[in-house]
Amino acid sequence: MIARQVAVIGGGWAGMAAAVAATQAGHQVTVLEATRQWGGRARALDSTLADGSHAVLDNGQHILIGAYSHTLDLMRTVGVDPQRALLRLPLRMLFPDGQGLRLPDWPMPLDVLAGIWTARGWSAADKWSLLRNTSRWQMAGFRCAPQLSVAQLCQGMTPVLMQTLIEPLCVSALNTPPERASAAVFLRVLKDSLLGGKGSSNLLIPTTDMASLFPAAAARWLEQRGASLQAGSRVTDIRHQSQWQVNGQAFDAVVLACPASTACQLLDAATADTGTLRALRSWTARAGALEYESIATVYVQAGATRLEQPLLALRSSPAHPAQFVFDRGRLGGPAGLLAFVVSASQDARVVLQHKVLQQAVTQLGLQDTDLHVVQTVVEKRATFACTPGLQRPSTTIAAGLLACGDYIDGPYPATLEGAVRSGTAAARALVWPT
User: Fold this and answer.
1) Each residue of 348-386: b (16+ CB within 10 Å) or e?
2) Which of 26, 76, 177, 213 has the highest CB neighbour count under 10 A?
3) Separation of alpha carbons 347 and 340, rounded Å
4) Residues paired with 298 in a beta bridge
5) Hey, which bits of 86-243 come out as E strands?
6) Pairing between strand 86-89 and 228-231?
7) How confident is the model at residue 434 (pLDDT cuts 50, 70, 90)?
8) What are phi and psi of 308, to 5 degrees?
């Protein structure tokens, strides 16, 4: 095979996945990342605790599930052991008062049946409602009309199930409220997690920072194999003549692994022949129409607090906005450091922090005098809004020009698995000029 010159613009999870796959295929890869860090929206973040000590946090708290096979395989490829880097737990959606769902570590479907039967805080009517609906979804092959929302899919479920299971699951998987979330994508995630074999529904919580989990290891792996990694290299110019050129350097193919908004800006300013420009405009029209959801992570130092579980669901409301809390002290971090996750947050930072601290007092029983906000990370465009019937942009933009990212057309919502799958698919779809 002739080694081709491939530029990957963006060093997030999708870009690093594309770079690894292209390198495995024998091509010469150059990764251009605008910042000085690898990982994109899932990267490490230096911070200072209340006592002045240094801590490595994340640019947002993340979680994986056992069904994310592509991500786990890629971690192994670049030398990361998932068993050491991830805490594996059977699926649970537990609240601080102990109510909610907890699956035992049993084979499917015994784990689901046992989890539903023993769920605390659910009446017999709640449990029967869940069994009836999940059986119906399974009989339909976990498929539904593309225009259906999760709320419409779950019509008839009891309010308790909606509040303590469906809403937390939907927000954690799609980062979109049930009334606006795609039922088709929601069912696909459920299918892969519940029917993907033993362990596919397990929760995988990182016990190291997000950079170490994959992108930093991928960077070392790529450098060892001759790839050129250029952090701090912002791309400002893309054009096509006989070859694609990025900032004046010629490449046989280019993979846009940057955010959709950045990709649109680059392509809107690109120069090429009329036919290629038409293809670029068609792609940017679809990518530019995406809407986005925000995610905020409020890191709070809570003395020597140790939660009963590494992850707890929280009862969310306008006054208490967080949907989940992670005990970072149980995940390899400093003791007493909690990460509160708020999806679709609209509050100003100061207001949000105040509400989260009040939620910690009310729902976790903590003393407000022991609570100190360490850092609040707000990603205004954390994920695309995974709405019913959404038409997402394709991998191929033009001959020799590809795109990857969690927003690209695929079976998954905006997750790390979606990003990794997209990056690998882009590398496999490279088209060379003849």
Assistant:
1) eeeebbebbbebbeebbebeeeebebbbbbbbebbbbbb
2) 213
3) 14
4) 340, 376
5) 86-89, 92-94, 100-102, 203-206, 228-231, 238-240
6) unpaired
7) very low
8) -70, -25
